[in-house]
Design a protein that fits this description.
The protein is mainly alpha-helical. The protein has 7 helices and 2 strands.
């Protein structure tokens, strides 16, 4: 595998990201042409085979060659109704089509449009995901701050009660602690010197 291929691999999923993107864009492009031909089929379902052949002949004259089924609206429907595309080209007096759909200008143009739409959609989805993630983070922080405030509110009254009961009252000292004024403290401090 080449270095470029290795760089485009997602190690977590073991897949080629570029191939995945290309496949998704191709699927979107194919879906566009399928929907276009389905709309044509609904509109022209009652048309005779002769009228469809005349429509195809007009498109071929307009293009001065036999069009690929992708190049004309309803091409796939006409292909399914009238049969072999090469036989139709022979009946119209044109050489058979040897190009692939991806070589057609209309296909490439639609592929580019679908690629732009795909990337715009991916950016939009990424932005929505980031916004949701940010909102969840903000909500979690707000909940955490609320819990901290609630805990502080519980602790404050207890502290205030302790502080209020001992306000202005000296702390009780046990005998033997420095500064209690006991005889032992006087012995430790030594004799008092008068000035």
């Amino acid at each position: 595998m080449s270095k470029k291929k290795k760089q485009n691999m997602n190690p977590a999923r073991n897949m080629d990201i570029d191939a995945w993107r290309k496949r998704k864009i191709t699927e979107r492009t194919e879906r566009f042409f399928a929907e276009r031909d389905d709309r044509f089929a609904e509109t022209h379902a009652g048309d005779s085979d002769g009228s469809l052949f005349l429509y195809l002949a007009a498109k071929a004259r307009e293009m001065r060659r036999m069009p690929h089924p992708v190049e004309i609206e309803g091409g796939r429907y006409i292909h399914s109704r009238l049969g072999d595309w090469d036989a139709l080209a022979d009946r119209l007096g044109y050489p058979p089509v040897r190009r692939h759909a991806t070589d057609c200008r209309i296909y490439r143009k639609e592929y580019k449009r679908q690629e732009d739409l795909f990337y715009a959609e991916r950016r939009r989805l990424r932005a929505e995901k980031e916004a949701a993630k940010s909102e969840r983070r903000h909500q979690k922080n707000a909940e955490q701050r609320a819990r901290q405030e609630a805990n502080r509110a519980k602790i404050r009254p207890a502290r205030d009660a302790e502080a209020g009961s001992s306000a202005g009252i000296p702390r009780r000292q046990t005998p033997g602690q420095p500064g209690t004024g006991t005889k032992e403290d006087a012995k430790k401090d030594g004799p008092c010197r008068s000035a």
